[in-house]
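Hello Y.,

Per our agreement to keep a running log of every chain we model this quarter, I'm adding this entry. I've kept the format consistent with earlier entries: sequence first, then predicted structure.
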Amino acid sequence: MRSKTSRGWFAFQLLAGLLAVLPARAADGGKVQEGEMAGYLIVPNEKVPTTYNAGFSMYVAAWPLLKEYPGHQFQTGLFGTWMFAQYDGQAPTNLYSDVEGGLGWWRDTRFPTTTPKFIMGGVGPNFSDIANGPAHGWGEWDKPRGVYGVAQLSPWVLFPIDGLNLKQGVCGELFGYGYLPLPLTPAKATTNGKPVPTGSNCWTLFLNTENFKGPLAFFTPNFWARAALKESRFAGQLLDSRPTNPNRALQMETQYVPSAQAVDAKGETYARIAPTSFPRGSDGDSMVVHHITSYNRTALPEAVQAWFAGGPVASGAINPAGAYTHVLSGRGAATWRIYLPGAADKKKVPLDWNSFATPSAFDENTFGYKWNYGLAAKTDSKNGPLVTLPEYYHLVKAPEKKPAWVPVKAEEVPAETGLAALKFDRPQEDRPEPYTTPDEPGSCWKKPGPVAGPFQALPGDGSVVTYYWYRFADQPAILNADLTDREREDLQVRVEKLHRNWKKDREYLTPPARGKLAAIDPALILTPPKGLEVGYVPIATRQAWRE
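Predicted structure for the entry above:
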């Protein structure tokens, strides 16, 4: 997806980010060392029977983690999970492959704001390939490593190359998503003409948001299966063929939040972190995860299979008999640590998280945090109420205890540290290079090519997304999915059935029992052109900064 030029641009941007995230510098030039905060917030959940191995869904809160976007070194997900394949016995060794992604911010996000975006995050064996969405992944167009791994399914939502935008200003609303294997393509005895099997699992992203409900896009089975062309041991071991392990980790993974450290005249070390917040409900608590559910094939896939075989129309709604909602105990753990760049693991000191946050189950299917408001603070943003974590910490090394960063009030930090003068502002960065797609007449983007366009969408991240309408089976991802012409036409027929019967305002995933749904950026909610309502999909071909 990226040209050599854009790779150079990204390397430059990363270097610029490392230098530009110097908003953490004392105004008087004091001896402040820039650092970072990173780690996991862990949410234990009940194990469920292994027969619930046909995907999952859940609701996670969406909110602005940081007050200001800190530059391209920033990378963190919000709460999410890892969907791995399930095996009959011991899992294969030296094999990491899953679906992760979710809501968050990534270093290669070109058009970031403080509002999170969503990516699909399909990971090929040992990170050989990555697929994040339609036209978004690893590799070059002539040497794809995921850029063709996701096919657009919905005619009502445009999926930008940089990730799916939520409506700017979300502040604690719930984003519902999950994956179920729709029977869209048949299993094959070959992959790209070689005697390597390809499975039939089309892991399909379902959303439940305020302004769109239903299936949006899916990983093509070829995205997984083609890895076995290079290593035969992967044949039949990946998500194109395997069910899913229903007992998944549930965590928030944070790789970088800006921080700074300084030492006072007595040799005591203090730290400050960029203002970091969680959503705050009317009761002062923070709900972050709700209704994590695992499915068996009776939840939806079997009904769709019967429909495609000539049976009654499947409504698309989850059958509750095939669903198992995980119980959340309310226990939890945090591994967030503050440290200087390049610090050895033993010098990465943990925050005393439990002094200001208490993991809690608000009911058996809802997890969040209660706060010690003597240390955390109730804050009000223009978009809604937040709770902001303590900003200042003292490195405490008590006898017979491990060192810890203990929160302190601003007035308890000696002035000579210079920490009070820091400003964690958004750094000045060059405008991002556009995402582009092939323009050659003979490319799969032009032959057979789109049927309408170009059109433009203006999401709230400041970009302009150029898109065209393609016949579903003629979109580039499907043309690169190792399907014969007959298989593509059979797939087209199935998708037309979905478009006629599964509309964007019906319930598919079970609605949340509490909270309000987040919205997708309204600029991305589309009405198909007249005559293209069934069997056609919007595909982004370019995304650039809006002048």
